[in-house]
Every structure is written in structure tokens, then in C-alpha cells.
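> Could you send the DNA starvation/stationary phase protection protein prediction when you get a chance?

Sure thing. Input:
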Amino acid sequence: MDINTGIPTEERRQIAEGLGRLLADTYTLYLKTHNFHWNVTGPLFNTLHLMFEEQYTELATAVDEIAERIRALGFPAPGSYREFSGLTSIEEASGQPEAEEMIRQLVRDQETVVRTARSLLPVASEVHDEPTVELLTSRMQVHEKSAWMLRSLLG
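Output:
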């Protein structure tokens, strides 16, 4: 059946493509945060281990919400490592960085996800796609707070 929610097909496509980039960034950040959770060492081990777990758990829920929004718009959600690697703006970690470098990378990555979400707001707002605007706003709030909390550990 055709989708008739008041948003023209081309605009739904643009929004879905932008959400695909957000999904790729979010999933890549999830993997990176989970990796750092497993491999962090040093005096901040317990603090970072727990913080990273809280963050990757939240990200796991977010990827589902973003993918479901793409589907509600009538388009397939990207779902493979290959697709994500072609869409993401997040750099993978190489090797096992020290704890402070993990924090710095995750701050940059959290802010990258905010920029990805923010870049999609004008299109979604213009066609009055309030569910996507709400999703984007919520994601930006989460990532800005996570970046702030991580940054606070650096002094």
C-alpha cells in the first residue's frame, strides 16, 4: 500500500536517508563504546567501565528507535557493517587506546552524532515531520549530555 501521511515521497526519502546516516553513526558509536567498556584499564577503570556500559545500553535502544522510524517512513533501514561503514562519520578505534584517549574519542564521536542529527532537522521541520523532529531532538539531548559527562572526566 502507498503511504499517505502528508509527507511527499521525495521528502520521506531524504529524511530516511538522513536517518540512515544517524543510524550508522549511532551503531558505530555503540560498537566503539562497547569495545572501550571491555578494554578500559587504569585508575578510572570502574568509573569508565560503568559509564561506558550505561552509554552503550542507551545506544542499543536508540538504534532500534531510529531504524523503526526509517521503516515507518516507508524505506528499508541499513543493517550491515558494510552499509554502516559507508554511511558513518565516526572513526573506528585502532588498537587499544589509553583511558583518557578513549574519553577524548567518545566526546568527539558523541558530538559527531549531534551534528548528524542536527543536519537533518531542517528537512524534517520543513515538512512538519514531528515524529522525526522529536526523535532528532531527543537524540541530540542524549549525546550532548553524554559528551558533557565524558568531557568532565578530563578536567
